[in-house]
Amino acid sequence: MVSFVDEKPVTEDSVKSDAKGRLREASQLLRQVVRFHPRLFVIAVSGATLFAVCTVASSIGLRWMIDRVILVRFERGEVDLFALIVGSIIVIGIGLLRALGVVIRRSFAGKTEWRTCETITEKVVDHVVAQPIEWHRQKMTGDIVARCGVDADASVAILAPLPFSTSVLVMMVVSAGWMLYVDIPLGLVAVVVFPILLTLNIGYQRRIDRYYNLAQQELGDLSEAVHESFDGVMVVKSFGAENRETERLAKITARLKDARIDAIGVRSIFEAMLDAIPTLINIILITLGAYRVKAGEMTVGDLSSFIYLFTLLVFPLRIIGYLFSEIPHSVAGWRRIREVLDEDVFEDPATKILNAPMGFGIDLNGINFSHVNGAPILKNLTMRVASGKTVALVGATGCGKTTLLHAVAGLILPDSGSVAVQDGGVALVFQEAFLFAESLRYNITLDSDISEEQISLAISIADCHEFLKNLEQGLDTVMGERGVSLSGGQRQRVALARAIAQNRPILLLDDTTSALDPKTEARIIANLRRISNDHTVLVVASRPSTIALADEVLFMAEGHIVEQGTHEQLLQSSEQYRALITAFEHDRKAS
């Protein structure tokens, strides 16, 4: 089994330190989750307290009915009508109040739990959304989903039994006082069970803690692996890797199963002890009570109410056990939640983008960028693109073209240098077009306020009319997950239409037309030139025919711009550029 906890020598001091740490962590969890919706929690505790007091008081009603009504009927052969009416009022009244307490406790405990879960989930989602692309690239999607889902649920699991558990403490104090008042020797025997059960609960919590932590971690790993596997289902199936992927998931599942079986083993012993100890104490109470009644030290009603009260207390005492059993589970979930919430929000690169000088759409000055612990990608890159121009960005694979577009779009923060764009923002179309499992209209507008005229213009420029006519429901056709109902080229055109519809002054196209045939690509580039007076277009291109349509070409190599000019000028002046274009043409013909 894989352990996520560093192995350390186990000593008495370390055990005490771990126990204190777990107790402190559990206390912090309780304080923090209760603060989210304190009013609901107080109402739930008030209902539970009413139930607790009425539970103890019900034994008084039982004693009254036995001593004043039942025994009198047997001894005198008559019914004390007054005692019967009073006893009935006591029993029914206490029962109604007790039922009211149950309704209040359960209703508001449930509201507290799920409202708190909702609040925590919203906080985690807001924190995740606030993080820029750089943060998301360092995280696994499945792990983030797990923290927003199963971990949030786990962190509030403690809230369901908590109001009842707090009322049990009230019940223990009140019932202990009442039982000692009724009969001191018998009361002392009954009260002894309270510290025994509490000690048992604390010991259980110490043992079960590490199993729950491990299980929660394994659950997060499983969610991460499953999400990744489903996300890459095309790759898995195309390479016939279903069995290998199944084995990978099976190993994680086996570790999760082992952790949960270990936890269930400890819990089963704990549950058995919770059943056995109160039962043994109950037998002792009945035996000693019989002798006390025979000796005239207490009445039958006293003993009956005493046993009745102790029996009623057994289940509430189990609730404390349930609370302790949920603490490790909730602490494990809350710990993973805090790992997200306590992480600083990365600086948003978009806030560092400046306004370009008049007449320029894009102005980059001395840009340097490298990935964490990686080689430099952009090296002192400086470039200017005039407003209203269509410019092709050309370079060999790996020279930094996509990274450059991400810097211009404000998705990554350069290590140094400045990025300035025309006021109004940037629209970036990725090479891998992503579509939502929504309607075509939604994928173009992203549910923003865009006029039908603007949608129609975007569809026209992106050359979507042809396949749009074949869709039965037109713009209201649902695309399916990731736009599975469309071809690669159609998805690229929809993504381009989405960027155009947003009406941003800067359009960045990251090899967006790579899945299109040359004729369609040429039409789209020509269409883009029609709107170039209002838009600056920077397109990463590898097709010579597309490059030739641009007003200007930026030739990029080894992380910076090495040549700038028209396509024809660069073919004549740059041997390196000419060699690259020749290679592009050769690849096109070969394919």
Structure notes:
The protein is an alpha/beta fold and 591 residues long. The chain has two domains: 12-341, ABC transporter type 1, transmembrane domain (ABC transporter transmembrane region fold, Up-down Bundle), CATH 1.20.1560; 351-590, Rossmann fold (3-Layer(aba) Sandwich), CATH 3.40.50. Helices cover 66% and strands 10% of the residues. It contains 20 helices and ten strands. The chain has helices at residues 12-36, 38-76, 81-130, 133-137, 141-148, 150-155, 162-182, 184-231, 233-238, 242-294, 300-341, 401-409, 440-445, 452-461, 465-468, 488-501, 518-530, 544-549, 567-573, 575-590, and strands at residues 354-355, 360-370, 376-386, 390-395, 416-421, 426-429, 506-510, 536-540, 552-557, 560-565. A six-stranded mixed β-sheet has the order 6-7-8-4-9-10, sandwiched between helices. α8 runs antiparallel to α10, α8 (184-231) runs parallel beside α11 (300-341) and α19 (567-573) crosses α20 (575-590). The longest helix has 53 residues, at 242-294. Mean pLDDT is 78; it is low at 1-17.
Would you kindly provide a brief summary of this structure?
The protein is of the alpha/beta class and 591 residues long. It contains 20 helices and ten strands. The radius of gyration is 36 Å and the shape is elongated.
CATH class of the largest domain: Mainly Alpha
Q: Secondary-structure element order, as H and E?
A: HHHHHHHHHHHEEEEHEEHHHHEHEHEEHH
User: What is the CATH homologous superfamily assignment of the largest domain?
Assistant: ABC transporter type 1, transmembrane domain
The overall strand count is: 10
Quickly give the CATH architecture of the largest domain.
Up-down Bundle
How many strands, which pairing sense, and closed or not: the largest β-sheet? Answer: 6 strands, mixed
Spatial strand sequence of the major β-sheet: 6-7-8-4-9-10
- Helix content estimate: 55-70%
